[in-house]
Automatic annotation (TrEMBL):
Gene3D superfamilies: 3.40.630.30
CDD domains in the record: NAT_SF
Organism name: Streptomyces camponoticapitis
Protein name: N-acetyltransferase domain-containing protein
Ranges of residues in domain N-acetyltransferase: 136-272
Length: 272
């Protein structure tokens, strides 16, 4: 895989020309900045805290700034979202310019959250055979009952309230069921692991999000099985690449599966 070429393709399709990620969300280019303002449910990067309005993600997806234009562009985004009473996120990548953009965001009142690795792999080169422990089965999430099971895993695995992920998935399944796929690993009648995949139209990238396993079931191959499940589905639907914002915990697993680290992404959050 040509890492520089793939990263440039990712920047174009998933940032500069990004489709809206949920019902009611609007993506617009203002000067050298592409931002999303949400009126409904959405948000890349969940689980974890995310600037939301009724569950929708608000923030800056891409920018092409230099030392002369950066501060004015930052001030303009603060004015836009603050006028709406919204907290928002500037999704900063380590290859973005200018090179001191992180310092400028901090000086403007943004707070950085933990960085994650942008990891990408070609679907054709990843394992797609699903292997789970004895007594465990994977169940596709297609209705409200499945969403509730996934939300339960989310709450137990990440220690965060389940309401956001429940509302988000229900809205997506209702408005655009082809834009998302999710699965839950069941040990008998108990959900023990879950993950979802975003399938944005008009792009070559499927995004893997929210992979989590409850305590007591970790280290038994469920995360890997859910990656394989989604890899096979993404390939069947014609997506060439899989993309993950990987934490320190998932990064070693993804690297062993064949993902490569192309950049680092850090959410910078501004609260009115």
């Amino acid at each position: 895989m040509d890492n520089e070429a793939v990263r440039a393709l990712f920047d174009r399709q998933m940032r500069r020309e990004a489709p809206a990620d949920g019902p009611g969300a609007v993506v617009e280019r203002v000067g050298a900045v592409v931002r999303q303002t949400a009126a409904g449910v959405g948000g890349p990067g969940a689980p974890g805290p995310a600037p939301e309005a009724d569950g929708g993600w608000n923030g800056v997806l891409w920018s092409d700034l230099d030392e002369q234009s950066a501060d004015a562009a930052i001030a303009e985004q603060i004015r836009h979202f603050t006028s709406l009473g919204l907290e928002f996120e500037w999704k900063l990548y380590s290859h973005d310019t200018p090179h001191d953009l992180a310092r400028r965001l901090t000086a403007a009142g943004f707070t950085p959250e933990p960085p994650e690795a942008l990891m990408i792999a070609e679907a054709a080169g990843l394992p797609s055979e699903v292997e789970v422990p004895d007594g465990v089965r994977l169940v596709a999430v297609t209705d409200a009952a499945g969403v509730e099971l996934l939300a339960e895993v989310h709450e137990r695995a990440f220690g965060t309230d389940r309401s956001h992920i429940r509302e988000r998935l229900l809205a997506q399944l209702g408005a655009a069921p082809g834009s998302v796929a999710a699965a839950v690993a069941m040990a008998g009648d108990v959900p023990v692991s879950a993950a979802r995949m975003e399938l944005p139209t008009g792009t070559e990238f499927a995004g893997l999000w929210g992979g989590g396993t409850v305590p007591g079931w970790r280290g038994r191959g469920l995360y890997r099985a859910l990656v394989a499940f989604r890899t096979r589905l993404a390939a069947e639907r014609g997506y060439r690449y899989l993309q993950v914002d990987a934490s320190d915990q998932s990064r070693p697993i993804l690297r062993r599966l064949g993902f490569e680290e192309l950049s680092t992404t850090t959410p910078y959050v501004h609260t009115p």
